[in-house]
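User: Predict the complex.
Assistant: Input components as received:
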Amino acid sequence: MSSDRAPLVELARHVKILSRRDVVLGGSAAGALIALLASRPALSAVTEAVPAAPEPPPTVSSSRIPVSDGLTHSREFDDALNAILGDAEPAIGEPLTLTLPDLAENGNVVPYTIAVESPMTDTDYVRTLHLLSTSNPQAAVAAFHLTPATGKAMVSGRMRLAKTQDVVAVAELSGGQLLVSIRKIEVTIGGCGNE
Amino acid sequence: MASKTRIKLPEKTAVGDVIEVRALINHVMETGNRKDAGGQIIPRDIVKSLLVTFGNVTVFRAEFGPGISSNPFVAFYMRVPGPGELVFVWEDDAGVRTTERTPLLIG
């Protein structure tokens, strides 16, 4: 670490790392920060803030996609998503869209529409659409397998949602590309009968 | 257990049109998460798949989980290849199949 920088700038840099990175990096960054602070007695007043700096990470999933504010993604969801994505890096958003109401009074019957802008030709079509829940007892809600004969990559239906959560759609294209779309939905009365 | 089904297609189609197909089957879609009054878990019982074919060509296939609402309904699209028959086959957890055949009318 460069000792010629202003100490507070240096500190701010490390605090930022701590709050952003996940558990794996958190440990080493915290160690670096403590070492930094220990070597600079002038900053001891700030030291008390150090233990509080990392947000409690164990409940934060290792999800590879953005998580909406105030929500978490279940371990089962992460596993299901990883099984679909493999090592591939998905594109977030367009041309995949997931349409849901912003608010569902009744989590037992929530309409959804998944759509991809695709020519649906023999060489360029959407192979599979996955619908995943981040907080239902079972993450895999549905999978739809399309073919060029499908003509248009759009599927609608009705799903159950146990509580307020992110709903995630994943599209697998014939060329191997992966698309992800995430929608947060408020659920007033949960479905799934898991109460 | 054969279940009641409902298929909806446009009344008039032409070859090459991309049409919406709506398919519903009456089914409880019991999740396996619920308990009855006596505290016993109600066993899971869901329709797990729908296969739609035209001739011998698969047009659309759906896999359903417990997160799909009861009386699973799905709407999808297909390009009309010509006159013929659409065959819908739903299969439940027990392997029981429900088949529905719907003519695709041209003109």
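The mean pLDDT of chain B is 93.
Let me know if you want any component modeled separately.
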